[in-house]
């Protein structure tokens, strides 16, 4: 599990957590009668049962009934016994809003999310990891933002849940998502004036990249830009690919300080038949080949130092990239050069006359 499951099982499934929103958010009211409903999609694979149920209860308890169309649990062929009949029996007692569907064989996080989306019935979809607790009034700011900007992907501000103590806490500084040349997500501290505005007024702020554990979007818009790349494997890198595609194809990524969720940050949650770094690298190769243009040479240089990322795509996988390139052309997406100038100017290309690229390490 890579988490203290014994501690998780000691904690109530329906517990009170600290309201971590900026004070101004707590005084905000919404006309929820004008909002669309949302389907919450939660993939899981061999998660601790208590974690899954705490995630579900937090959504049920802190979401207005009229706004919650359904919760769709997508079990990705889990092998743990308590995620079999015991989970089914518990879900049956939760009422018709909670549905459990099962993949007959392992599909991975990305395809499990797509499976859930295909069965969803609401105009707004929210993807949550199975080890999350949503906070007070988490959904209303998301729906308000989507009404204003339907061509955006929204992420709540992500608080932390300690993997050992399961304590829910919030950082005292705010971050946005950044990017490195090997296409890793990195946390970047917000400029002071943006932090001040976010704390003072709850002002949303844009982010170059998504963290990926909690995402919300208008379903029609998401489908129109290609949803997730179904040819990516298991999980890893899908948040970066979606981030680049959204920005470069006319959309935006927004973080909402007034919407808070807690996420258990831990090492790799999925058991894999193949090593993590090889599948992750394949997913990132797909991203680089479609979206980086001539800058992809920096990606390959930055990853060449790592032996566990010395992989390549198969002939079939190379051919499958044509679908994503055709989508890029159909949407008339901007170049990665535009992304660097307008969205992520702090990602500096190496000097053009450099003889070598990569990372320096001490031995």
UniProtKB/TrEMBL annotation:
SUPFAM superfamilies xrefs: Nucleotide-diphospho-sugar transferases (SSF53448)
Ranges where the Glycosyltransferase 2-like domain occurs: 39-190
Alphabetical GO biological process terms: protein O-linked glycosylation
One function term, GO molecular function aspect: polypeptide N-acetylgalactosaminyltransferase activity
InterPro entries with a match to the protein in the record: Galactosyl_T_C, Glyco_trans_2-like, Nucleotide-diphossugar_trans
Keyword Disulfide bond (UniProt): yes
Top-level taxonomic group: Eukaryota
Galactosyltransferase C-terminal domain ranges (all copies): 200-264
Protein's UniProt keywords contain Membrane: no
Pfam families assigned to the protein according to its UniProt record, in alphabetical order: Glyco_transf_7C, Glycos_transf_2
Keyword vocabulary terms for this entry: Disulfide bond, Transferase
GO cellular component annotations of the record: Golgi apparatus
Designated name of the protein: Uncharacterized protein
The species this protein was found in: Capitella teleta
């Amino acid at each position: 599990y890579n988490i203290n499951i014994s501690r998780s099982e000691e904690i109530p499934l329906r517990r009170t957590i600290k309201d971590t929103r900026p004070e101004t958010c707590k005084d905000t009211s919404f006309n929820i009668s004008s909002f669309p409903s949302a389907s919450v999609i939660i993939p899981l694979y061999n998660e601790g049962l208590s974690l899954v149920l705490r995630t579900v209860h937090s959504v049920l308890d802190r979401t207005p009934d009229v706004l919650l169309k359904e919760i769709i649990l997508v079990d990705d062929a889990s092998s743990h016994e308590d995620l079999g009949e015991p989970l089914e029996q518990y879900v049956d007692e939760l009422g018709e809003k909670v549905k459990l569907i099962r993949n007959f064989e392992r599909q991975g996080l990305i395809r499990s999310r797509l499976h859930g989306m295909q069965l969803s019935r609401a105009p707004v979809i929210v993807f949550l990891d199975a080890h999350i607790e949503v906070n007070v009034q988490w959904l209303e700011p998301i729906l308000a933002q989507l009404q204003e900007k339907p061509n955006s992907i929204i992420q709540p501000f992500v608080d932390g849940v300690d993997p050992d103590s399961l304590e829910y806490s919030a950082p005292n500084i705010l971050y946005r998502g950044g990017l490195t040349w090997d296409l890793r997500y990195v946390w970047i501290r917000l400029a002071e004036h943006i932090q001040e505005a976010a704390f003072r007024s709850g002002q949303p702020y844009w982010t170059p990249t998504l963290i990926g554990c909690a995402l919300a979007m208008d379903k029609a818009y998401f489908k129109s830009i290609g949803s997730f790349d179904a040819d990516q494997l298991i999980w890893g890198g899908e948040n970066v690919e979606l981030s680049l595609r959204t920005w470069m194809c006319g959309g935006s990524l927004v973080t909402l300080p007034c919407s808070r969720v807690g996420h258990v940050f831990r090492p790799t949650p999925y058991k894999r038949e193949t090593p993590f770094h090889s599948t992750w690298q394949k997913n990132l190769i797909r991203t680089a080949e479609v979206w980086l243009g001539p800058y992809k040479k920096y990606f390959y240089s930055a990853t060449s130092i790592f032996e566990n990322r010395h992989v390549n795509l198969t002939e079939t996988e190379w051919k499958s990239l044509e679908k994503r390139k055709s989508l890029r052309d159909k949407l008339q997406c901007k170049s990665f050069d535009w992304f660097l100038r307008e969205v992520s100017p702090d990602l500096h290309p190496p000097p053009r006359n450099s003889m070598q690229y990569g990372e320096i390490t001490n031995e």
